[in-house]
Structures are given as C-alpha cells and as structure tokens.
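Aggregate trends can hide what the representation actually does to any particular protein. In the encoding step, the backbone of a single protein was reduced to a row of integers, each denoting a local shape. The record that follows shows the chain in one-letter code together with its fold in token form.

***
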Amino acid sequence: MVPRLGISFSIDDNKGGLSSPDVTETVFQYMFTPGLEYHFLNEGGFTSYIALDIIVVSRFMERINSTGRDVTGALVDPDDSANPLNDPNVSIPLSDRGFFGLGGYLAFGADYHFSSRFYVGAEIGFQAMTAKTSDVEVNGNVFQEGFRFFDGSLTTTNSLRIGFRLF
C-alpha cells in the first residue's frame, strides 16, 4: 500500500484579459485528492497497481464592477444585453459557475522501475463526482439558486509518471 496526495490550486484575476479598470473578474479553484495505491504485481522492473482517491474540489467566481452591478457565483456581465441574467429562465453554463463537489477516482496504473528509487509509469481511471453550483447573486440579491449535478468521466494521465522512493 502506498499513500497518494494530489493538490491543485489556481487563481485568475481579470479572466479573458479584460481591459476595463472598473471590472475585476476572479476565479479561485482548488482540488485536493488524498488516496491509496495497492501494488499487486511486481515482476522485474514492472509493477502494476490499483488506486483509489477521494476528490474534494471547489471553484469560486465573482465579477466586481465599481461602476455597475456586481455578480458572485458566476462570471457574466450583467450590463451586457446578450447575457443570461436578462432571462431568469436561461441557466448560466456550468463552465461559468462556481461549485463545490465531492467524489472518487478509481484507477489502474503501471510503472517501470529503472532502479530501486526511480520509475516512470502511466494511469487510466474513472472519476465520479456529485456537486452543487453556487447561487448566482447580483448586487447581493439571489438571481439563480444553485443546483446539484453529477459528473463522471474516463481519465488518463497525459504524461508519464515520474517518481522516486525516499527510503
């Protein structure tokens, strides 16, 4: 058994390269994935494993405008006539909304050990997550309440795993 830990963190102000000094758009996101690997085959330098991770992820979005309306929970321009805030029956796309989610990741992987302390490998797995989007507020008033959603996907590592053993 081998413990695993994945951490991802990002913050982006003025998403999309806004040039207006009156507007600041902020996206803050983190993902925390603690887990375990169980290695079950070890022949020569080749080893294979099954991994199980817990996923905790959150994204916060806001658009602050010193001369117009502020929006939290999503990135939309409330002063643009072509935005979803002008029609309460149109939902803001998930890619433009904040959310909080919990889930799991089950994977199969293989490593090749060049020495006792250095290896390369690859991994493929399935992740599933249930989450709730943030309420969208305009100037502090709820415009759209958050909704629950489920996301599942097949995931592959797009690069080689490179690692080492300390002991």
Notes: The beta strands are 2-13, 23-43, 46-65, 71-72, 99-113, 118-133, 136-138, 141-144, 148-156, 161-164.
